[in-house]
């Protein structure tokens, strides 16, 4: 079965493409959006994003086109995405994008 690389659902795009765009960068709005959309859609987004991170399904170019952020390396990119996932879905600390981007 082929794997979809560089794909994003409209729901996940609404969350990441809005709150984490470098010109806006308001990560706390992602949590507000997740709370607002309800548990069923939130779980769908959580699962999709977790799968993207676990299977490394996004290229850095794809994310740059989504949010205008470049990363030093693929490992930094996926470490940052994991921090975003932890922040939004597990009450983790606010991701420090300046630690990873260039």
What secondary-structure arrangement, pairings included, does this model have?
Layout lengths: L9 H10 L7 H11 L1 H17 L4 H8 L6 H17 L12
Helix pairs in contact: 1-2, 2-5, 3-5
Care to describe what's here?
The chain is mainly α. The protein is built from 5 helices and no strands. It has helices spanning 10-19, 27-37, 39-55, 60-67, 74-90. It starts with 9 loop residues before the first helix and ends in a 12-residue tail after the last helix. The mean pLDDT is 90.
Largest β-sheet summary:
none
By secondary-structure content and strand pairing, the structural class works out as: mainly alpha
Overall pLDDT metric: 90
Sheet-strand content, in percent, reads under 5%
The end-to-end span amounts to 36 Å
Summed up, the helix count is 5
Number of strands: 0
- The figure for the number of domains is 1
Shape, principal axes of CA atoms: globular
Give me the strand/helix succession: HHHHH
Report the radius of gyration as a whole number of Å: 13 Å
Uncertain ranges: none
Please bin the fraction of helical residues: 55-70%
